[in-house]
Amino acid sequence: MSLEESSSDLRDQAKQNYEHVKNTVITEEKRSFLSKHRIDEFDSVVLITSSPRGGSSLLFDILRHHEETCSPDGEHGRWYTLNGICYPAFESDVVPANFESFDREKLLTDLLAEVGATERSGDRTHRVDNTLVRLPLQFPDRELPYEQVRKELLEGTSLNEILERFGISPLQYDEYAERDADSSFENETIEDRPFVSSHGHKRSLTADDFERTLVLKASGDAYRLPWIREQLFPETEVKVVHLTRNPAASINGLYDGWRLNRGFQTYNVGDLNLEGYDGSLWCYDLPPDWSSEGKLIDVCLQQWVQAHRHILNSRDAFEDVLRIRFEDILTETDSVIKEIVEFADLGKSELLSENVENPNKVMTTKEPARARWRSREGLVKDALNRADETYSEVVEELEYTEESEWI
Question: Which domain of life is it from (predicted)?
Fold first, then answer.
């Protein structure tokens, strides 16, 4: 069986189980809402775009605590994957701006499937529904008793306890920050786990919530920005926050993620012969002209370079683009978040202010530390010294020429 056939079979399994959950398992209210609405009904969208390991998960988590926003529970790229808008239908994660051979109605409905509105009181039923719609994408090759899972979740049974009973290690789900899973857990999936999970201040959507601002983030969007603008949100106000992070820190984070069995795998691209990696699946984004051979550190470098090169090349597709440094979010959090909130025209939010004062740890591979990349400085700098002219151009455009600022 070819890789394309294998990926198609996996998606078919996931689609079948997801449609079952969406049509028969989740609450009648949510089923009714999804039958009537699509994600492009929002008046405005804030799209956070960056390279992988660029800090976008933390920024997304902060902004989704604003009480005038709606958001999915994590990266929305899994819904593109479910609909086949990904490798191997394309040679990489690049989606051409004029690509129209997809079921637009279905995709726009799927993208709405786990979006909720931020409200301090939250809604447990909403979180249970979202857990259920994600499970078929997280474990597409498993036939789970979704009705039973829903019943137990509503009764207060922890998801970890339920998963363990079905022979699924919680390490495959959301305990990635503690330790690695056994290598046998490396399997093909619709989404790259771990994801940013739901927080306790989300509730189900109502029609009035489309007047709020939708916050989205997925590192793969770096390669599909013109397509998103032209095909998904042609009549919506879309503001882009371009989040940057210095190359050394980003590359080091990617190198960590590739070598940790914590669910960052995305594609089965065939045999990999990468020095420094003994896994079988590709991790993170798939840039154009990717290679299955060579040094892992060079792959990580290209993932940083190509993501930002494509974002910079796509700026003209949007009227409003704000570039923010992740380093500034760490050192000048209050003022930078205020700048983003003003750019997005969101206004004040007590819940967001509380989160800014005590942000969550999100999608970390190791305990955060300043300039952690210097622990493998020689490896990183060797890769940078081998980099081509495109790297030099991106570094200059993003103003990361001073190594002293690489925290």
Answer: Archaea
